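Page 42, continued from yesterday. The earlier attempt failed because a stray header line got pasted into the input along with the sequence. Redoing it now with the clean sequence only.
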Amino acid sequence: MLALASLSGVADADWARTAAPYADLAFLGGVALDSDSRAAARELVARGREEFLPADPLSFVEDQLAALDDAPIRTGVNVRSATVEPIREVASICAAHGAVLELNAHCRQEELCAVGCGETLLRETERLSRYVAAASDAGATVSVKVRAEVDGADLPTTTRAVADAGADAIHVDAMDSEPLIADVAAASDAFVLANNGVRDRVTAWEYLAYGADGVSVGRPSDDPVVLGRVARAVEDWARRGPPRRRCDEEVPR
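This time it went through. C-alpha cells are written below.
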C-alpha cells in the first residue's frame, strides 16, 4: 500500500484527487477539532505555519470527504483534539464515508503539546487509548499517527495498547530509527504504515523489509515523479511474495 501523509493546511480534497492515480489512501488534514487545539493552531498560523482553521471543523471534514466520495482513492482524516467528544463526532462522519479516522499523536509543535495534543499523547497511553476506543465505537476505521524518538515514549508498548483499544493501523514517522518498524510490526496485528524519507525503491523497500505493510509519502506527495517511483516500488515488492496483509484486508473497512 502507498498512502499520502497529511500535511497541515495543504492536504485537502483537491490534493488527494490529484494524487489518486498513484496512491491507495490519502490522509487529509490535520484538522484541529476542539477549542484548545484550534487556539494552538491559530498560534501556529501567527508564526507562519499553514493550518486548516475552518469556522466549523466538522462541516469541513464532511464537505472534504463528500468531495471525494467518487474518487478512486480511499480517504482518511488526521485530527487533533485535547478532548474526546469531538473525536466521537468526527469518527461518525468518517464512518459514513468509509474513511479512516487518524488520531494525531505525532505533531511536536510546542503550542499543540502544551494543550495535550500531538506527541504528548505518546506519553499518555491511557488517554490515547480512550480516544481510539471512542473513534472505534463510533464505527470508524482508526489509524494512529505516531513519531519515533520521543522522550518518555515506547512505541511498541503504545502500539499494543492502542491496538487493544481498537486501532486498525499504526502510522509511524520513523525519523532516523528505521529498524523500530520491526518492533512496531511485531507488537500487534495492526496494519503498519511507515513514513519518513520515502522517495524511491530503496527507501520504500527498507521499511517493507522491516515488516511495514505499506509506506506513506509526505512532503513530495504533490510530485508525480516521486509518487510514480514509490508506487512502482510497492507494486514490485508485492510481486516478490505474499504481503503481510492481503489487499482486501489493507486498513480494514
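Notes: The first strand starts at residue 2 and ends at 4.
Reminder to self: strip header lines before submitting.
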